[in-house]
Description:
Layout: H1 3-9, H2 21-41, H3 43-46, H4 48-84, H5 95-131, H6 144-163, H7 167-170
Helix pairs in contact: 2-4, 2-5, 4-5
Amino acid sequence: MDIRHREAHLDLKRHQLPSDLRRSQRRLRLRPLLLRGLIRLVRDELGDKQYKRENIFYRDLNRRLSKVRDTAALAESLSKLEERFAEELTENAFASVRRYLKRATRKRQAEKKRALVHVRKKIIAARKRVKKWSIKNDNVSVAGPGLNQIYSQGRAGFSKAYKKQSVARCGSAVPRIGSKR
């Protein structure tokens, strides 16, 4: 696994921002997530200073996109709730919420496009840093220590969550908006 080639595989088209903002937003949100995962795998090779800089950089890019994604995510969640509880909800139970989300989505289109262009430019500029990463071995063995660390953290987190199970922590306490009951 050549780490630098892996980053190139996550490449973006340089001069094109697709007209479908939802699809391009998802693609751009995926790039920093994949790169953060890759960075975690090669953390020992990068060293703490470089790892922290890159991790914070890609985390902040995702935060920038998540701010403009919220209304679309809420609309999607609302649709899923309507489907799931169709028999329990009155007709148009979420009509006012849906109208609000449509207005908010229209208002945020320009902001979304600016954020997408900004993140795209930042990722393209970050490629120069990737070429300078201090990775001595470009093979699978460089990911071993990072993979062990990630696995250990995941097991510890799962164990902790399993011990502290509750309905409230799982988020299944859904409010009864527009319920027929």
